[in-house]
Amino acid sequence: MCALCWNIRGFGHDGRRRQLIEYMRDEHIDIVAIQETMRTEFSLPELDRLSPHLFAWHWLPSSGSSGHSGGILLGVKDATFEAGGMDRGQFFVSMELYERSLNFKWEVTIVYGPADHSRSASFLEELHRKVSAASLPVVVGGDFNLLRFAEDKSNSHVNFARMQMFNDCIADLGLREIDRVGARFTWTNRQAAPT
Q1: Which one of 23, 98, 172, 182 has the lowest number of neighbouring Cβ atoms within 10 Å?
Q2: 3-173 has which CATH code?
Q3: What is the DSSP letter of 150?
Q4: In the prediction, which pLDDT does 4 show?
Q5: pTM of this prediction?
């Protein structure tokens, strides 16, 4: 099974959408999770064009009066999974999945945490409620817009209280982080001295 989780920063950009289609084809993606779609709706024909395979789709519309903020798109390949119950909140979308080859049921929850950190506590409370209520094993992914460790940032502007709140939520839920390999940072602002 192969999953792609990407903050695309605008699903409507042709270049990014072409890149997504190439990733899905070349990497044989079974789960695609896109954050910051900046879209309030999707048509099934446009989603069908993303992959030669049939996918089940679920999304959270972007927010704001013009739809230019946030949004999540989650898709699972029909040949790999049978999609069950779907849910969404203010900061997440989820699907219960039956993985055919393993005869195994689990739930995937994709988040897009607020960049406005005055809402971080609400985001973590919603995530806590969602994962705590799950009756199946859960995988949580996405863009949390939070740091776990000071080393995750290239400068010293770190909010230690917010970082502790995030780590406490992870510990309370018994979640385990999958270590990353490759680039040190998951995001940069394309500057010589990146944030």
Answers
A1: 182
A2: 3.60.10.10
A3: G
A4: 92
A5: 0.90
The CB density around residue 102, as the number of other CB atoms within 10 Å, is 10
pLDDT value of position 150: 87
Of residues 55, 18, 16, the one with CA closest to residue 35? 16
Percentage of the chain modeled with pLDDT above 90: 74
55 Cβ contact list (under 8 Å, min separation 6):
32, 47, 48, 75, 76, 77, 78
Secondary element (H or E) of residue 171: helix 160-173
- pLDDT at residue 189 greater than cutoff 80: no
Do the beta carbons of residue 162 and residue 168 sit within 8 Å? Answer: no
Question: pLDDT tens across 143-172, in order?
Answer: 999 989 888 887 888 899 999 999 999 999
Task: Give the residues across from 56 on adjacent strands.
Answer: 76
Residue for token pair 């990146």:
194
